[in-house]
Design goal:
Layout (H helix, E strand, L loop, with lengths): L2 H33 L8 H28 L3 H21 L6 H34 L7
Helix pairs in contact: 1-2, 1-3, 2-3, 2-4, 3-4
Length: 142
């Protein structure tokens, strides 16, 4: 396969992963919002934080190894690109003045951190694990 076709296929896969990550994260948040909802005002922030962490962990668990396997050396950069729609969506809360409330800013920062960090660090760990397996000597058979 030529290098140009390989790059084009990886770019297409990156677009598909970005779409799947963004839409999957939104659906996971909606689904978890129905399951982990509470009417107790003292538990609302905890429920929202738990929903964000579980949704980010689910998407990271699904995407980390495929991205590490496909993008190899550039897997961490690919994970950052995949997480960029959520980053761009949540950064608007820091720029738009009506949203400058401490709770909104904290939840937006937490969502950015949970999704981006879990995806990028999970992909980095998967990439290191796959590369260490490639360098291990095969066991000898008697």
């Amino acid at each position: 396969m030529s290098a140009a076709i390989s790059v084009a296929l990886r770019a297409l896969v990156l677009i598909v992963f970005t779409y799947f990550g963004f839409v999957g994260y939104a659906y996971a948040l909606g689904f978890l919002g129905n399951i982990l909802s509470t009417t107790d005002k003292s538990l609302v922030y905890g429920a929202v934080l738990l929903q964000g962490f579980v949704a980010a962990a689910l998407i990271a668990a699904v995407l980390c190894y495929p991205m590490a396997r496909i993008f190899r050396r550039h897997a961490t950069l690919a994970a950052f690109i995949v997480s960029s729609p959520v980053l761009l969506l949540r950064i608007a809360d820091f720029i738009d003045e009506p949203y400058w409330q401490p709770a909104v800013l904290f939840l937006s920062a937490y969502e950015i951190g949970a999704y981006a960090l879990l995806l990028v660090l999970g992909t980095r760990l998967a990439s290191k694990r796959l590369s260490s397996r490639a360098h291990e000597p095969e066991p000898q058979q008697d």
